[in-house]
């Protein structure tokens, strides 16, 4: 190639580099733009470049597309990830500390206090329950399940709870919530309003703890408020995973995401936590629930009549019991409670699942299915009778994600989902339609409805017109 042609190419190259798009936020010269367009053409459009040139050019302008060849394997292996190495080291150290006994992680004074009190707590076998949940299609992995078992033991020692159970997981757009429920005998904080139920009763009978990482601390959620539950029934909200996030909804929610999460956990628990029929009963003296002295696990566990709700239904007021207003007489109180009982009745405790109203378009609100080997086997001596290794799986259609599994007298509840109820009302405002363009001006057209039809109009008198013209000439 001659020096003249080389100089010409260099001059053209410099001119293309000087041509820039000054109106865009991305200052890009014409030479770089054409280079990206030609790279795209050679890689993906070698045969239809002429037809696709304008489209490819527009795409590169809009996306600022950069064509780069992928790195070779030896280049990737030579990359140093210092931050990742540090993160892995910290993660391994936290796992090691979690696998140790929880008492070793506490300060010495707290360790001695717990040892002296000889606190006892009840924690289910998470690993055994995880084996049952796998039959329902739910699994967190063996490593995560083992860490969860250790984390529950640590939480029991730190929180002072007498009973803990892994409740499940709520999916979030940024982080997921791992949730534990339990019974906490520690006195609650002062109630915020008169209508709030105190801890240990009603919707605050159970305390919830959440975390997004089993290696971090568990956070105790605040007690449920009636107004939070009432508004939660009116909205649908996808959680973000941040407890302090604001909730943008219509109607406005009077709290943060942690309050909405607490309200939804209460609703799901009271609607989907089920037990075998006859396991619990109400004590006549204390009017509190207790385990039945004579209880036999139902034989037909597949039937919905063999299962009942564990908790009372939540009323429209955001409580499980009606509350009369303050400063009224006894007669007015009885009359007021009577009207509430008619408009918002308290359902019977331990109601069976077949009594639940069906979902719209369906025949039931629950699905029951037996999976696994349904063949009964004789037990080895000294045990008598037969045993079956099949697993009964019950799914809630009203709260998708709520599952109960049962096998040989053992059962467990779990929820894994977005915390949304199927069929709940929600306000979704529609966007206004696009503003239409101005209409094109139409050309002038003949009158569509003239007073006299064109064919009926009289013909002009040409002779008279000529005479008038001749008379004017004579006058002149």
Annotate the secondary structure layout:
Blueprint: H1 3-18, H2 30-44, H3 49-63, H4 73-77, H5 82-99, H6 102-105, H7 108-117, H8 126-133, H9 142-159, E1 163-170, E2 177-183, E3 207-211, E4 219-220, H10 226-232, H11 257-272, E5 274-276, E6 280-282, E7 289-291, E8 307-309, H12 330-343, E9 366-371, E10 377-378, E11 386-387, E12 391-396, E13 402-407, E14 410-417, H13 462-475
Parallel strand pairs: 1-14
Antiparallel strand pairs: 1-2, 2-3, 3-4, 5-8, 6-7, 9-12, 10-11, 12-13, 13-14
Number of strands: 14
Low-pLDDT segments: 80-84, 111-118
Mean pLDDT: 81
User: Which shape, going by the Cα principal axes?
Assistant: extended
Major sheet: 8 strands, mixed
Radius of gyration: 38 Å
Helix content: 25-40%
Order of helices and strands: HHHHHHHHHEEEEHHEEEEHEEEEEEH
Q: Tell me the strand order in the biggest sheet.
A: 4-3-2-1-14-13-12-9
Question: Treating each run of at least 4 consecutive H or I residues as one helix, how many helices?
Answer: 13
Give the strand content. 5-15%
Class computed from helices, strands and strand pairing = alpha+beta
- C-alpha termini separation: 91 Å
InterPro entries: Radial_spoke
Region (Disordered): 425-476
Subcellular location: Cytoplasm, Cytoskeleton, Cilium axoneme
Keywords: Cell projection, Cilium, Cytoplasm, Cytoskeleton
């Amino acid at each position: 190639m001659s020096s003249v042609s080389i100089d010409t190419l260099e001059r053209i190259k410099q001119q293309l580099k000087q041509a820039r798009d000054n109106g865009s936020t991305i200052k890009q010269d014409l030479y770089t733009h054409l280079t990206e367009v030609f790279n795209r053409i050679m890689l993906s459009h070698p045969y239809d470049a002429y037809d696709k040139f304008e489209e490819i050019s527009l795409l590169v302008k809009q996306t600022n597309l950069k064509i780069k060849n992928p790195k070779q394997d030896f280049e990737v292996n030579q990359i140093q990830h210092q931050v990742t190495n540090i993160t892995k080291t910290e993660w391994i150290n936290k796992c090691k500390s979690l696998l140790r006994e929880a008492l070793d992680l506490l300060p010495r004074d707290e360790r001695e206090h717990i040892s002296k009190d000889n606190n006892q707590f009840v924690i289910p076998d998470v690993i055994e329950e995880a084996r049952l949940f796998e039959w329902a299609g739910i699994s967190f992995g063996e490593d995560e399940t083992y860490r969860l078992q250790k984390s529950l033991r640590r939480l029991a020692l730190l929180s002072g709870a007498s009973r803990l159970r892994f409740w499940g997981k709520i999916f979030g757009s940024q982080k997921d919530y791992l949730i534990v429920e339990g019974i906490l005998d520690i006195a609650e904080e002062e109630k915020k309003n008169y209508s709030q139920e105190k801890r240990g009763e009603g919707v605050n009978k159970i305390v919830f703890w959440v975390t997004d990482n089993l290696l971090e601390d568990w956070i105790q959620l605040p007690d449920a408020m009636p107004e939070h539950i009432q508004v939660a029934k009116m909205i649908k909200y996808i959680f973000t995973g941040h407890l302090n996030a604001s909730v943008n909804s219509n109607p406005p929610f009077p709290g943060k995401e942690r309050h909405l999460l607490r309200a939804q956990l209460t609703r799901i628990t009271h609607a989907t936590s089920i037990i075998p029929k006859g396991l619990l009963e109400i004590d006549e003296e204390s009017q509190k629930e207790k385990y039945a002295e004579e209880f036999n696990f139902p034989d037909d566990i597949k039937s919905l009549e063999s299962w009942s709700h564990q908790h009372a239904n939540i009323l429209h007021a955001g409580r499980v019991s009606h509350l009369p207003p303050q400063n009224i007489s006894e007669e007015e109180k009885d009359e007021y409670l009577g009207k509430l009982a008619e408009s918002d009745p308290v359902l019977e405790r331990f109601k069976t699942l077949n009594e639940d109203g069906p979902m719209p378009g369906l025949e039931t609100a629950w699905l029951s299915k037996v999976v696994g080997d349904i063949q009964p086997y004789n037990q080895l001596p000294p045990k008598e009778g037969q045993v079956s290794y099949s697993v009964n799986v019950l799914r809630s259609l009203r709260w998708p994600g709520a599952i109960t599994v049962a096998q040989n007298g053992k059962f467990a509840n779990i929820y894994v989902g977005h915390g949304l109820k199927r069929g709940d009302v929600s306000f979704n405002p529609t966007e206004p339609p696009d503003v239409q363009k101005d209409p094109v001006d139409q050309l002038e057209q003949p009158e569509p409805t003239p007073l006299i039809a064109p064919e009926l109009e009289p013909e002009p008198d040409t002779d008279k017109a000529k005479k008038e013209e001749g008379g004017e000439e004579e006058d002149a």
